[in-house]
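Bug #77: duplicate submission created two jobs. Keeping one. Sequence:
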Amino acid sequence: MTGTPPPNPSLPRPQVPPVEAAIGRGHQRYTGIRAPALAVFAFAAEGSGARPDAQPRNQMKRDQAAAFEAGVPSARVVRLENASHDVFRSNEAEVLREIHDFIGKLPVCCR
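Kept job's structure:
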């Protein structure tokens, strides 16, 4: 989706728990994806009543989305605002619309 603000480097980064950091050190970068790809990134609501760490967590996700988009330029990257981790539940209609649109644009050989 368009209209998502660019990453803000001045926002604090959330602390990564040691277990997640260890897992992250072993990750492989999958930038050689040649198949059609759809990536959906969910951003939590910010402001009154939101999680206190929503803004830095959203920034981390924006950075991840931007990195994925740069690393896999052929991918369709969707950014959904005011969504929960279970984005298929909180934003069901948008997710289904994006999936159907993505599948509809695939070459016949890939459907």
